Amino acid sequence: MDAFVWPVRVYYEDTDAGGLVYHANYLKFMERARTEWLRSLGFEQNALIRELAVMFAVRAMQIDFLKPAHFDDALEIVTRVDACRGASLLFAQSVVRSGREPELLCRAQVKVACLDARTLRPRPIPDKIKLEISDVG
Q1: Which residues does 131 contact at the CB level (< 8 Å), separation at least 6?
Q2: Gyration radius of the chain over CA positions
Q3: Quick one: how far is CA 85 from the chain centroid?
C-alpha cells in the first residue's frame, strides 16, 4: 500500500533536558500520523464511534530507536498499512529527519485492533473502512 507522510516539527516541549526528543514523544508522533492517515481517507474518529460504533486501539508495538531527533528538526512520519486483517491493522511506521539526505531515526510495527465502541471487544473492521484502505494500495 502507498505510504502516508505527515510532517512534524520538533518543538521545545518535545525534548528532554539534552535537547533530544524524549522517547515517548515518538509514539505521540506516530499516533497522530495514524489519525491523520485515517482522516485523509475521510474518517474522523469521533464520527466512527458515533456512526459505526467502532474505535481503534493499539494492541502491540515493536519499536527501534535508531538516532535521536533534535529540537527544531523537521521530521516526516511515514505510515503504511502492511496488513488489513479481520479485526486489526498492521502498520509500518518510521520517523525520518527531512532534508537533502533524509535520515531514518525510528521505526515501528504497530498492531491496531478494531473495537466495538460500546463493549470494547474486538470486532471486524467495517467494510466501508476496508474498502477505502484497499483503494489506497
Answers
A1: none
A2: 16
A3: 17
Q: Please give the Cα distance from 87 to 123 (Å, whole number).
A: 5
Active-site residue list: 16
What phi and psi values does residue 7 have, to the nearest 5 degrees? -80, 145
d(CA 114, CA 98): 32
CATH topology of domain 4-136: Thiol Ester Dehydrase; Chain A (3.10.129)
Domain ranges of the chain: 4-136
The 10s digit of each residue's pLDDT in 59-79 is: 999 999 999 999 999 999 999
Q: What is the pLDDT of residues 83-135, one digit of tens each?
A: 999 999 999 999 999 988 999 999 999 999 999 999 999 999 999 999 988 76
